[in-house]
C-alpha cells in the first residue's frame, strides 16, 4: 500500500529578552547553576509574577511576520503538574486566548516547489528549569536559571507531508525568528526545540491516522531522522495489522531509537485555569503599530531584494537571506568586493564548507566579511587566479593579519596579465611543441580539439610559475594555434 | 499605656512623654506575661523590636518621624518578613525564613513602625477559628475556651488583649472581619487591589486582601495610610491615588444612605444578633443616616461559589510546597513520588488538604465547566448585585458574623458548620468591595460586630462612618477582663 505521511509541528522558541517573562532576572545562558534564579523564579511563598512587555513585543512581531491575527486580549493560564524543575507546580502559559492567532509560513522545497504551512496559533509561556540526572550519584540536580525564560510555542496545522517538508519549514522558521532578532537561534543551547506530531494514512484518503508526538528535538538532522524513524515504525505496525497508540515518544538521536514516554491514558490532567495573579493582557493598535515600525526586513523580502539588486539565483538568494547573520555577512562582502555573485559563490562554497567542518557559525568566522570582500575584489579584477585566491583564503582562515593585497604581494600570487609578456611566454613554450601543434591543427572534431588545447595549458601555467592569467593565456594560445 | 490607641501613642511619642524603646519594652513584657494564656503569637521578635525601637527614637530625634515611627504593632504570620521566620501557621513553613519582605512589611518598616512579632492564624488562612494552626489554637480574651475567630485570630486576640495596639490581617472570605467581630475590635478589608499582595502568602489569589485590625476606626485609617497604594510587583494592585484616610473621619453622616439587604436579615439570623445589629443601625439614624431595605439577590449562592473558587486557586497556589526548594521535607524519601506525597501529607494539616482536594476536583477535566466556570458566573452575578445596590445607597450594613465567639472544638468536626461562619462576609470578597467590622453590642458579655460594606475604593467613607459611630458609642472601648 502507498502511505501518506502527515506531520504537524510544535516549536518552542526562546525569546531573546534581557530578563525573564515574569521576573526581572537575567536570561543570559551559561551562568553557574541557580545564580539566575530570584525569589520569584524559585516560587518563594508570596512572590508574584509581573509580565514582561518585551516578550509581548517579540510575540507580536512574530505574529506580524507570519501574517497572523494579533489577539488584542490574551490570558495566561496555569497548567498544573508536579516536577522538580517546575518551581510553582504549574507552568504559566496561554491556552484559550493566545496572543497570536492563525497565520502562515511559505516554504520552498529543494525541487523549487512552493508550499504554504498554516500556523494554528502561537502562545507565550514560561520555560521550566533543568533537571540534571548525571554527576549526582543517583540523585538529581536542579538548575532553575532557565525557569521563567520566555517562550513562544508555535503550533502548525498538520500541513507537512514528508520529513523534507518539515525540515524545510523548520529551517524557514529558524531563519524567520533569527532575522526578526526575537531568538538567538542557537539550537545546541535549546533556543529552539521541536516536537513532531506524525501520523500516516493510506494515500488518497482524507481521514487522519492516529498520531504520535516525538518531543524535544533540538537539531534539524535529528528531527529529520526522528520523522523517518517514526514513519517507518508506524508503517511497519500498520502493515503487520497493528494499531498506532496515541502517545508521546522520546527519540534518541545517537542510537536512532525511540521509546514511549507516556500514552494518552497516562497523560496528566493539567487542570488549566486562568492565572489569578496575572490580569488579562490587552494590547491596542498603537502597540501593534509601534512593533510594526521596528520590524526588521523579513527573509522573503530580503530574498527578493537579493535577486533584484544583486542578480542572484533563486537558490543562492534563498540560502543567503534565510539567516540574518549570513545575509549581513553577504551584503558586507559584496559591498567591499564589488562583485555580488562572486561574493555569494565564496560564501556558499568555500566559507560555508570550512565553517561547517569547524562547526562554527558565520558570526564566529575567522575571516571577517570585509576581508573576504577584499579577496573577492582581487579575484574580480583578475589580480588573483582561482588557485591564488584559494591560497589567500587559506591564509586568512588561519588568521594571517596582513591585508589581502599585502598577502598577494608577499606570496607572489599576483597574476601576470601583461599581454606582451604572455605572448612571449606562449611563443617560447610552443616552440618546443611542434608535434602537438600539428596534431591539433589536423583534428576536426571540436570536442577533441578542445581536449588537445588543454594539453598546452599545463606547460604554459608551469612556465608562468602559476602566475599567468589563465584566461588571457587561453586567448593568446587559441590565436596562435589557429594561426 | 497599653490601653491607648495608636493615635494616642503617636501623640505621646511626638510630645516625648514616652520613648519607642519604653513603649516597645512595655508591650513585649505584656506579651511575655499575658500571651501564655492566648497563644496569639507564633513568633515574638524581641531583639529586632528593641533594635527597631532604638532606631525609631533616633529617627524622631533627627526630626524625620512619621505618625508610625516608634509605634509597636504585629504582623499576621502570613506576611513575609526578611530574616524572620514566616510560617503561615503551617508545619510546612515551620523552618522558613524568607530572604525578602512583603510590600506591606516594607511599608511599615519605612514608616518606622516597630514589629513585635508574628501572630497566629489558621493554617494558610484556611479557617474561621484559628484552630487549624500548627502552633495550636489561639484563645479569645473575652471568655474561657472560646475561639477568637479566624483566620486572623492571632491578630484579633492580640489587639483585644492589648498586647499590641494594632496588627495586620488578611481577609479572603471574612478572615479580618469575623475575628474582629468575635474579639470586639475594629477591622477593615480594603477593596481588592488596594493593598499589595506581594510577599503575602497566597491562599486564593483573586480573593486575598491584606487589611487592618485595631481598636478604633481612626487607628484603622492610620494603618491603611501606610498599607494602601500601587505596587509594581503585584499585577493585580491598582494604580490609583491614596487619600489621607484620617482626613475625612470627622465628616458628619447627615444624609448618608444606608442599605439593609433583606437577605442578611432573614429568619436564619439569630434573634438576639438581629436585635444588636438593628440597635446599632438605629444609632446611625440618630447620626443623620437614612435607612432603606435593599436586595442582594444572589447572596445565597456566595458560599457555594466561594468554596469552588477559593479551593481551586489554593490547589494551585499550594503546589509550590513540594519539599524541593524550601520548607518542610519528609525524612528519607525513597523516590520523587514519595518525596511529594509524604512531604505534603506530613506538612499540611487536615483543612488545607481538604481544600486542596476540593479545588483539584473542581478543576479536573470533565468537572471544570460544571464547577469552576459556573462558580465564576455566579461570582459575576454577585458583583452585579453590589454594583446595583451602590447605585442607590452609600453603605450597606448587616451582621459581620452569625454568632458571637463559640467554644473551642465546637465546630472542628463539621467543616460546613465552620464555613457558615463566613456567611455574611464571603460575598464581599467575591465582589471585591471593601468592608469593615465595628464593635456594636454584646450578647452574653461577648462582642458583636456590625459590618459596613462600601463601594469600590470607598474605604474613606467606611472609616468615616465607623469613626462617627465610635464617637457616639463606646462598644469599641470595652476591654476583656484580665
Explain what this protein looks like in three dimensions:
The complex is a heterodimer of chains A (483) and B (482). In chain A, helix 3 links the parallel strand 11 (212-217) and strand 12. An eight-stranded mixed sheet of chain A has the order 5-6-9-1-10-11-12-13. Chain A has a three-stranded antiparallel sheet with strand order 4-3-14, with no helix packed on it. Chain A has a two-stranded antiparallel sheet with strand order 2-15. Chain A has three domains: 3-290, no CATH class; 297-411, no CATH class; 419-482, Arc Repressor Mutant, subunit A, CATH 1.10.10. Chain A has helices at 53-65, 163-180, 220-239, 285-293, 299-310, 314-321, 324-337, 340-358, 369-380, 386-397, 404-411, 419-430, 434-442, 446-463, 470-482; strands at 3-14, 73-74, 76-80, 90-94, 103-108, 114-126, 130-132, 141-143, 150-156, 192-202, 212-217, 247-252, 257-263, 273-274, 281-282. In chain A, 39% of the residues are buried. In chain A, helix 12 (419-430) crosses helix 14 (446-463). Chain A is an alpha+beta fold. Chain B has 482 residues and is an alpha/beta fold. Chain B has a domain at 6-255 and 458-477: Amidase signature (AS) enzymes, CATH 3.90.1300. Chain B has helices at residues 6-15, 20-38, 46-61, 103-111, 153-160, 177-183, 217-227, 271-286, 302-317, 336-347, 350-363, 369-389, 415-419, 426-431, 459-472; strands at 41-44, 72-76, 114-119, 166-170, 186-189, 210-214, 257-261, 290-294, 395-399, 435-443, 446-454. Chain B has an eight-stranded mixed sheet with strand order 4-6-5-10-11-9-7-8, sandwiched between helices. A three-stranded mixed sheet of chain B has the order 1-3-2, with helices on both faces. In chain B, strand 7, helix 8 and strand 8 form a beta-alpha-beta unit. In chain B, helix 5 (153-160) packs parallel to helix 6 and helix 7 runs antiparallel to helix 15 (459-472). Classes of the chains: A alpha+beta (483), B alpha/beta (482). The interface between A and B is large, with 29 and 44 residues. Chain A: Belongs to the GatB/GatE family. GatB subfamily. Chain A: InterPro entries: Asn/Gln-tRNA_amidoTrfase_suB/E, Asn/Gln-tRNA_Trfase_suB/E_cat, Asn/Gln_amidotransferase, Asn/Gln_tRNA_amidoTrase-B-like, GatB, GatB_C_1, GatB_Yqey_C_2, Gln-tRNA_amidoTrfase_suB_CS. Chain A: Its EC number is 6.3.5.-. Chain A: This is Aspartyl/glutamyl-tRNA(Asn/Gln) amidotransferase subunit B. Chain A: Pfam families: GatB_N, GatB_Yqey.
Amino acid at each position: 500500500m502507498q502511505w501518506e505521511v502527515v506531520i504537524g509541528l510544535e516549536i518552542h522558541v526562546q525569546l531573546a529578552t534581557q530578563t525573564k517573562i515574569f521576573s526581572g532576572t537575567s536570561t543570559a545562558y551559561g551562568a553557574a547553576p541557580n545564580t539566575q534564579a530570584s525569589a520569584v523564579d524559585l516560587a518563594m511563598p508570596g512572590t508574584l509574577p509581573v509580565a514582561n512587555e518585551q516578550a509581548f513585543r517579540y510575540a507580536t512581531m512574530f505574529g506580524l511576520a507570519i501574517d497572523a491575527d494579533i489577539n488584542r486580549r490574551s490570558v495566561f493560564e496555569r497548567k498544573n503538574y508536579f516536577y522538580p524543575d517546575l518551581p510553582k507546580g504549574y507552568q504559566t502559559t496561554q491556552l484559550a486566548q493566545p496572543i497570536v492567532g492563525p497565520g502562515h509560513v511559505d516554504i520552498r522545497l529543494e525541487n523549487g516547489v512552493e508550499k504554504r504551512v498554516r500556523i494554528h496559533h502561537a502562545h507565550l509561556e514560561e520555560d521550566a528549569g533543568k533537571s540534571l540526572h548525571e554527576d549526582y550519584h543517583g540523585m538529581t540536580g536542579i538548575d532553575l536559571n532557565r525557569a521563567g525564560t520566555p517562550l513562544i510555542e508555535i503550533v502548525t496545522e498538520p500541513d507537512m507531508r514528508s520529513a523534507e517538508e518539515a525540515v524545510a519549514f523548520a529551517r524557514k522558521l529558524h531563519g524567520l525568528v533569527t532575522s526578526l532578532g526575537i531568538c538567538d537561534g542557537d539550537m545546541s543551547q535549546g533556543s529552539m526545540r521541536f516536537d513532531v506530531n506524525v501520523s500516516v494514512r493510506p494515500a488518497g484518503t482524507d481521514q487522519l491516522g492516529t498520531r504520535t508526538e516525538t518531543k524535544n528535538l533540538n537539531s534539524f538532522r535529528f528531527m529529520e531522522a526522528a520523522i523517518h524513524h517514526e514513519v517507518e515504525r508506524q508503517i511497519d505496525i500498520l502493515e503487520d495489522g497493528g494499531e498506532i497508540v496515541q502517545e508521546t515518544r522520546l527519540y534518541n538521536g545517537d542510537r536512532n531509537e525511540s521509546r514511549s514516554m507516556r500514552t494518552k491514558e497516562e497523560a496528566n490532567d493539567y487542570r488549566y485555569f486562568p492565572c489569578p495573579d496575572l490580569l488579562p493582557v490587552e494590547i491596542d493598535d498603537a502597540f501593534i503599530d509601534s512593533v510594526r515600525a521596528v520590524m526588521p526586513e523579513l527573509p522573503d523580502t530580503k530574498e527578493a531584494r537579493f535577486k533584484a539588486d544583486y542578480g542572484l539565483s533563486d537558490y543562492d538568494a534563498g540560502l543567503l537571506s534565510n539567516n540574518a547573520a549570513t545575509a549581513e555577512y553577504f551584503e558586507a562582502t559584496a559591498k567591499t568586493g564589488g562583485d555580488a555573485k562572486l561574493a555569494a559563490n565564496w560564501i556558499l562554497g568555500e566559507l560555508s564548507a570550512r565553517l561547517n567542518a569547524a562547526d562554527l557559525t558565520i558570526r564566529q568566522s575567522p575571516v571577517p566579511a570585509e576581508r573576504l570582500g577584499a579577496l573577492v575584489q582581487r579575484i574580480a579584477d583578475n589580480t588573483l587566479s582561482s588557485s591564488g585566491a584559494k591560497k589567500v583564503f587559506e591564509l586568512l582562515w588561519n588568521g594571517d593579519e596582513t591585508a589581502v593585497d599585502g598577502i598577494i604581494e608577499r606570496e607572489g600570487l599576483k597574476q601576470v596579465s601583461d599581454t606582451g609578456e604572455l605572448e612571449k611566454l606562449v611563443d617560447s613554450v610552443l616552440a618546443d611543441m611542434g608535434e602537438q601543434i600539428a596534431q591539433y591543427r589536423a583534428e576536426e572534431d571540436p570536442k577533441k580539439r578542445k581536449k588537445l588545447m588543454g594539453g598546452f595549458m599545463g606547460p604554459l601555467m608551469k612556465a608562468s610559475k602559476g602566475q599567468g592569467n589563465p584566461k588571457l593565456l587561453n586567448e593568446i594560445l587559441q590565436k596562435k594555434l589557429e594561426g | 499605656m497599653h490601653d491607648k490607641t495608636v493615635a494616642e501613642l503617636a501623640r505621646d511619642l511626638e510630645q516625648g512623654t514616652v520613648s519607642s524603646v519604653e513603649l516597645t519594652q512595655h508591650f513585649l513584657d505584656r506579651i511575655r506575661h499575658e500571651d501564655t494564656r492566648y497563644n496569639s503569637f507564633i513568633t515574638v521578635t524581641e531583639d529586632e523590636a528593641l533594635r527597631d525601637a532604638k532606631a525609631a527614637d533616633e529617627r524622631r530625634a533627627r526630626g524625620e518621624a512619621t505618625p508610625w515611627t516608634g509605634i509597636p504593632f504585629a504582623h499576621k504570620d502570613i506576611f513575609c518578613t526578611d530574616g524572620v521566620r514566616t510560617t503561615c501557621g503551617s508545619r510546612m513553613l515551620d523552618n522558613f525564613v524568607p530572604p525578602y519582605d512583603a510590600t506591606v512589611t516594607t511599608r511599615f518598616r519605612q514608616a518606622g513602625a516597630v514589629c513585635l512579632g508574628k501572630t497566629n492564624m489558621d493554617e494558610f488562612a484556611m479557617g474561621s477559628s484559628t484552630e487549624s494552626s500548627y502552633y495550636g489554637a489561639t484563645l479569645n480574651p473575652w471568655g474561657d475556651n472560646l475561639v477568637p475567630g479566624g483566620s486572623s485570630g492571632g491578630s484579633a486576640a492580640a489587639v483585644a488583649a492589648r498586647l499590641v495596639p494594632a496588627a495586620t490581617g488578611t481577609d479572603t472570605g471574612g478572615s479580618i472581619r469575623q475575628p474582629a467581630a468575635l474579639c470586639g475590635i475594629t477591622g477593615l478589608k480594603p477593596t481588592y487591589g488596594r493593598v499589595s499582595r506581594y510577599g503575602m502568602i497566597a491562599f486564593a489569589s483573586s480573593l486575598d486582601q491584606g487589611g487592618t485590625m485595631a481598636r478604633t476606626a481612626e487607628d484603622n485609617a492610620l494603618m491603611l495610610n501606610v498599607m494602601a497604594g500601587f505596587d509594581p510587583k503585584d499585577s493585580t494592585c491598582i494604580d490609583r491615588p491614596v487619600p489621607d484616610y484620617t482626613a475625612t473621619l470627622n465628616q458628619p453622616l447627615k444624609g448618608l444612605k444606608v442599605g439593609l439587604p433583606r437577605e442578611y436579615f432573614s429568619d436564619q439570623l439569630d434573634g438576639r444578633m438581629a436585635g444588636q445589629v438593628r440597635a446599632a443601625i438605629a444609632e446611625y439614624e440618630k447620626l443623620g443616616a437614612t435607612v432603606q431595605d435593599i436586595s442582594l439577590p444572589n447572596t445565597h449562592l456566595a458560599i457555594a461559589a466561594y468554596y469552588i473558587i477559593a479551593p481551586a486557586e489554593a490547589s494551585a497556589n499550594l503546589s509550590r510546597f513540594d519539599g524541593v526548594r524550601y520548607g518542610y521535607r519528609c525524612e528519607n524519601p525513597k523516590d520523587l513520588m514519595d518525596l511529594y506525597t509524604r512531604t505534603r501529607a506530613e506538612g499540611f494539616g487536615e483543612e488545607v488538604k481538604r481544600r486542596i482536594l476540593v479545588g483539584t476536583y473542581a478543576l479536573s477535566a470533565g468537572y471544570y465547566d460544571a464547577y469552576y466556570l459556573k462558580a465564576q458566573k455566579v461570582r459575576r452575578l454577585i458583583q452585579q448585585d453590589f454594583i446595583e445596590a451602590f447605585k442607590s445607597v452609600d453603605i450597606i450594613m448587616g451582621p459581620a458574623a452569625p454568632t458571637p465567639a463559640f467554644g473551642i472544638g465546637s465546630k472542628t468536626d463539621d467543616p460546613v458548620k465552620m464555613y457558615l461562619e463566613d456567611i455574611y462576609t464571603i460575598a464581599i470578597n467575591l465582589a471585591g468591595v471593601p468592608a469593615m467590622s465595628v464593635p456594636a453590642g454584646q450578647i452574653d458579655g461577648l462582642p458583636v460586630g456590625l459590618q459596613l460594606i462600601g463601594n469600590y475604593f470607598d474605604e474613606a467613607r467606611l472609616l468615616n462612618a465607623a469613626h462617627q459611630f465610635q464617637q457616639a458609642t463606646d462598644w469599641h472601648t470595652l476591654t476583656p477582663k484580665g
